[in-house]
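User: My collaborator sent over this chain with a note saying "see what the structure looks like." That's all I know about it. Can you take a look?
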Amino acid sequence: MRIPELLAPVGSMEHLKVAINAGASSVYLSGKDYGARKYATNFTLDEINDAVNIAHLHNVRVYVTVNTLIKQDELEDVINYLSDLYAIGVDAVLVQDLGLVDLINRHLPNLKVHASTQMTCENQLKLDYLESKGIKRVVLPREMRKEEIKNLKTNMELEIFAHGALCYSYSGQCLMSSFKGGRSGNRGTCAQPCRQKYKVSGLEKEDYYLSPCDLSLYDKLKEISELNISCIKIEGRMRNKEYLAIVISNYRKALNKLKSGKKIESEEISLVFNRGFVEGQFSKTSKRSIRPGHVGLKIGKVISSGKNQIAVRLNDDLKNIPERGDGLLIVKNNNDYGLEISQNPVITTLNHFQKGKNKQIKDLTRKNKVLIIKKVWQNKKSDFNLNESDVYLTKRNNLIKKAREIENKGNSYVKSKLILTFSIKNKFPKLKGRITLANHKEIECEVVGNTPFEKPLKKSVAKETIQKQLSKVDNYPYQITQINVNYDGTLFIPISKINELRRNLFEKLEREIADSYKHESKKIKLDLKESKKENRSANISFYTNNLTHLKNIKNVKRVYLEIPPENDNPNINEKENYNLNYMISFLKEAYEISYDKDYKLIWKWPDITHDKLIKVLNKVRGILNNMNYNIPIMSNNFKGDYGPYSMNITNSQTIESLDNYRILTISPELTKKDYEGIITYSNPDKIELLVQGSVELMKTRYPLLYKKEIKQLNDNSKFYLIDGKNNAYPIHKSISCEELILFNSEELSLLKEIAHLKDIGFCNFSIDGRWKGDDCCNLINIYNSALKGEINEKELLKYSPKNTFGNYK
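Assistant: Without extra context I'll predict from the sequence alone. Here is the result:
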């Protein structure tokens, strides 16, 4: 059994102390820039240096997140920032940007890189590619299932999220905040539009459709330890210290018990921030949160409520019985009511309560308990009938006290082993220390006192006294395993000088430990070569999943064809029941239609392709190849012919690193200035730009509706998510039969900017016509005219009435 590393989130120096004391094996934190949690307190470079020194003293590793997409004009700045981190001695950096990986390999080859979950590394092909790039660890998507993780083969370390917030979308594949609010999750500024209420077409109910419950794999730690998982990560750099102290300490206890085969239960983790818990895709489970904020621990149901009191039938297995000063949340349907218990509550039995005898019981382990809470004038009145409501314990005073104790009195999980040797040299005391860190690194140093031993006037200092004084570790995370005292006990020196000698050695050891991780700092100058400016003929590519489009398309260079699902109803989950005959027939017909056309047909694979789906797609491809139907592939598996915009390409280094691709579509999140920067240093023939189409805002493995809601649907023909401003976001299903894709309510349209984009060097432009009617092929003519200098906005509005510049402006 392998006990995985316990990785804790750290948003500030205070959080670092809590994480170490609570039992973290490692921590992850961010600088002020380039981290995926820009709104956390985060760290300056000097603070990172201090944090690394403190953590290493306690045998805790430090990983720094540099896991945002890097824009062209940031490349030199970020590689020098990484050089500073390497000099400081961080243990690894988490990276999302593929181009940044290549820059690190070139300029900082000894800096360890972990692939962030933002890379969306959900299959073996991607794993193999990242391993070939020298990456040491991959943080797998939260959407990976136990059996999928079990089947992965790699020499890299695998890390999974075990506790904390779940995004509705795959990490790295969400553009909703970016397009809906101008704040990009890929740039660390997510506005969390998923935590808002929405409506669904065909349903009256408004709900948190995009807000899953939080993840907790606390009860799956034994199963995790039996997989090839090196590290479990706790999410929550924006959470408070109580959250960190309670969650980390409980996971540490549970992990420590695994070796003895014991399992411990904990209600405590439900008492710090959570939206309700679910085991997520690891166990193929999903559940929607009942509110965007803290829910707490469910403790029972209201059985009676009046003007002056509330009676709650408590769950029999409840350990945390509410007390005065604790907080409660009472929830019924879409209503909730919160209060603080201001007076000592009464705990009685259900039998007593039903007889009107609210007698306090002493044995709180009894079953059928009822909690009686007195209402006070400070509590606001509830605006709904509380009877039959669910009751949650949201604040627990004694837990806050426990968190403070962890922060102030705790110690590191693994102590360094220290051997001390005391001797006298030329009458002066000398103390030598040899310390062994958890990573097996050995450090030796010695100090000599400035006060000599003398002949005693009254009494000498005993050998045992010196040994006793040297055995004190103060607040240092040292475990003294041996003390050698080479002294005969016949001389005198003040005890304070022995203590001073010990402290001097400990301080010197602390400095030596810190220095043992440091490296030389160097300034890096990037030699980026500008691309040659040549006149190139511009061309149009067209995305479709409609065979009729293939018959009508003219004047395009490439067609990216995606196989639509046989049934596009997003609420029917076909459980990966792939129909090979359907796929083969669809592609075969497409090939035959396109055979004598002017365009090149390219098969677009789904952006999310778990290994089971890849196996199916490769089988289809093999059958078609045997029939001499050879079709190039568009995929984001890091090795392919054509790359979609889901690869999140935002700089020339990423384009250069993906040298096997013929054409790569760059991110639609970029601004006009960014496009100008990236084309300056890139081969224009190799990059493409989406100029018209509904952008994919989310890709998810979670259902939108549950069975009860599906039965209530009025209309299944067209499916939309509707926000508070009545914007309708189309939802479609991937050929995977599992993943849903949420499209933007408006179409990205850069028609007015075509002349400028062409002038600065872009020559490959694309239009997305998927899920659109036959007349959308007219968009091709509009854009071909625009390439010749003729802009016809009125004609565009006939086929695309709602348009946006997106992030371009």
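A starting point for your reply to your collaborator: The chain has four domains: 5-166+214-271, 297-395, 419-515, 539-693+746-804.
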